[in-house]
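Review session, final week

We close the course with one last complete record, chosen because it touches almost every idea we covered. It is Cyclomaltodextrinase / maltogenic alpha-amylase / neopullulanase, a protein from Candidatus Hakubella thermalkaliphila with 91 residues. Go through it on your own first, then we will talk.
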Amino acid sequence: MPEWIKDVVFYQIFPERFYNGDKSNDPPTVEEWGNKPKRRNFFGGDLWGIQEKLTYLEDLGVHAIYLTPIFEAPSNHKYDTADYLKRVSKN
C-alpha cells in the first residue's frame, strides 16, 4: 500500500443517487428527489452533480472519491454494462 493513502479520507459515491446536476440528461422515468429508492428506479444523479458538490465533499474532509460504475447501462447501478470501453459523454 502506498504511504500517501494512509491519511486519505475516501468517499464512495453511487452517482445516480448522489445529486442531479444536469436535468437535461435525465431518463424519462426519473423520480422526484426524496421519493423512496427502489431497485429499478432512477433519480437522475450524474457526474455534473458530483462536480457541483465538490466543495461540500471538501468541507466534509474528503480527499478522494471512489465512484461506483459510470458506464452506460440499463440499470441504475451500472454494473451491467454491455461495453466497458465506451466513453462517458456529457449526457
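Two points worth writing down before the exam:
Residues 73 and 81 are 4 Å apart (CA to CA).
The chain has one domain: 3-67.
Good luck, everyone.
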